[in-house]
Amino acid sequence: MDTLYITDLDGTLLNSDTQLSPFTLSVMNTLVARGLAFTYATARSLESARPVTAGLDLRLPAVTYNGTFIVRPQTGEILDCQTFTSKQAGYVIRAICQTGIRPLVYGLIDGRERVSWVAGNENEGLKHYLSLKKGDRRLRPLKDEEGLYDGEIYYFTCIGEKQELMPLYQRLCDHKDYHCTLQQEIYRPEYWCEIMPRAASKANGILRLKSILGCKRIISFGDAINDLPMCRISDEFYAVANGVDALKTHATAIIPGNDEDGVARWLLENARLEIS
């Protein structure tokens, strides 16, 4: 395969109702069936991505957790995973403890993905997040911090107000060992500070997937500032019209927005040479 086509989900392939429109679903499945090398790169976990991509014919591995995992969506098989070393995790843990923030801690425990947190004093943003995850088998509420940092940690998420999270972000954003982002949740007022190993980014995940698949080129689609590294490593990058201005200035071009099936319409018109 020559070109890998890869898209962000929220705000890009998914519409404002966090769904795939019938048009996008039909077009993408038709193109994939005809041989288009298409997949997604998302900040979501596979568990979270599966419901919103239900019905989408995905034949290639996907990039999840902002590049932490490369997985097969059909089976959940992990092809590649970036985790913190004990030293790296310890530094983040100390930084979090000094701020007084209560994090969500993502780790592999006995080979299973688990999301741990201290239950009882969740802020509104965290309560909302957990309300969307009812029944999620990864959830691991704890009565105190004992066991909070068990396993091979690959991700920290801190949800709260911007000013509360800013000191943590400023401490880690330029550190050579970490990839740290701070941005407002797309559909909510609160901010998320997300901390991953430096090798874990959408850009690095996509480059690893490109190598696994043996592709020559990357064409990608996105809407948010955390898609900027993906933009930079792509041969072509298209920002949806609803995307942030800081991303649009770096894009190859602007395409219709996520509520106008922009990604599907662009691929339908421009990917003909890649399919039989």
pLDDT under 50 segments (min length 5)? none
What strand order characterises the main sheet?
8-7-6-9-11-10
- The run of helices and strands is EHHEHEEEHEEHEEHEEHEHEHEH
Report the strand count. 14
Tell me the structural class: alpha/beta
Structural Rg: 18 Å
Query: Which bin fits the share of residues in helices?
Result: 25-40%
- What shape does the CA trace take? globular
N- to C-terminal distance:
12 Å
Q: How large a portion of the residues is in β-strands, by DSSP E? A: 25-35%
- Average predicted confidence as pLDDT: 93
Q: Work out the helix count.
A: 10
Describe the largest sheet. 6 strands, mixed
Q: How would you describe this structure to a colleague?
A:
- The chain has 276 residues and is of the alpha/beta class.
- The chain is 32% helix and 26% strand.
- The chain has helices spanning 9-13, 22-33, 46-52, 86-99, 124-131, 162-172, 202-213, 228-233, 245-248, 262-270; strands spanning 3-7, 38-40, 62-64, 69-71, 78-81, 104-109, 112-118, 139-142, 152-160, 178-184, 191-197, 217-222, 236-240, 253-255.
- The strands form 3 sheets. It has a 6-stranded mixed sheet.
- A hairpin with a 6-residue loop joins strand 10 and strand 11.
- Helix 4 (86-99) packs antiparallel against helix 6 (162-172).
